[in-house]
Amino acid sequence: MSIDYVDARRESESLRRWRQTQYARRCRSQAWLLDRVGHGQQLTIGQLGALPRPARCGWPLTGVGIRLYEGRAFLHGAQHCASPWACPLCTPVIRSRRAQDLRHAVHWWRQTKDAHGLVFVTLTVPHSKSERLGALIDLVAGSWSRMRGSHAWRRLADRTGIRHHVRSMEITWSPTSGWHAHLHVLLFTETMPDAKTLKKSIHVLWAEAVHALDPDRKPVSKRHGVIVESVTDEGLLLAEYMSKTPDKRDIALEMTRGDRKQGRRAGSMNPFELLDDGIDLNERTTRALWCEYVDSTYRRRTITWSRKLRTDSGLAGTEPTDRQIIDDAIHGTPVISLTAPAYRMLRRSPSIIAATLQLVEDGQVPLAETVIGQATGMDMDSRS
Ligand SMILES: [Zn+2]
């Protein structure tokens, strides 16, 4: 067997496992979100309409089937919630597209001039265990807007040659300190500034902005409130880091390691992990946390670019919306069409979906149809 073949098998196997996890997470997320509204009863039309979008992701529209696009198989014909935060299936698609753009911008900045620098800044606020996520997000996002809109920031930008920036928000949760919302900001600078000096200057502005919005809060930590790192060779890696999925174990890592416990040792969890089996928390708590996460992130932006960065770096058009990214990803050639019962069964069976999509990608369409047929106990119509 050639190495390529072995690598391809391994990758396909990891992808299958990763998909299985994501589909299982979506099932659980939806069960919780539906249950919260219906309390285990059949939902009324009004209740259905009021469900948050991630609760409806994957519901069939018409002509449901399996399609192939660029070698990847996927279920087609279902609703997609296009949530950049809280959907185990849509979020990774959106984030990886945003990462592509960011990689392009970083590459462009490095290529244009040797002296150009990149600085990676992390901004946090002190918080307590019982704090609500929505309030934290408001504070962090609001403080950033305030700081960035200030004259002092503009003066700092002039002095240190900050030309562009990209800002992304990350949310984690831990049993000891509760919700944690913080910002990663990538600064595009004319030359590489001194990290220590820059940290001091940004700290003053950040602490002021946070204090202005919430005077009663503990002051921003001198040591951890602002972290400034000069990006040397890791520019591209960091670009990926900025837009990675909220799942700490990003897809690339999942491909190579697949150790599902890995991310938990540090104590802080990415929100998707709340949907996994085997967490050391009772279900009522995880349910409540997950629902709070879905509600608090609704319509929030994950990543924002400074005004001229996209056009200056040669990225065509305006920034695509989350919905456009998802719609773009839904092309492909129809391979198998599914009956409504077959589709419903697949939606409830993460392992069968994952195995079926993998079979289609491996070119084993008849076998995939047999698997679906056996699982649903009915014949498949493969002519779409
Ligand atoms: Zn979705």
TrEMBL record:
Q: Which GO terms describe its biological process?
A: DNA replication
- Matches recorded under Pfam families: Rep_1
Q: Which GO terms describe its molecular function?
A: DNA binding
Which keywords does UniProt give here? DNA replication
What the record says about family reads: Belongs to the Gram-positive plasmids replication protein type 1 family.
**Descriptive protein name:** Rep protein
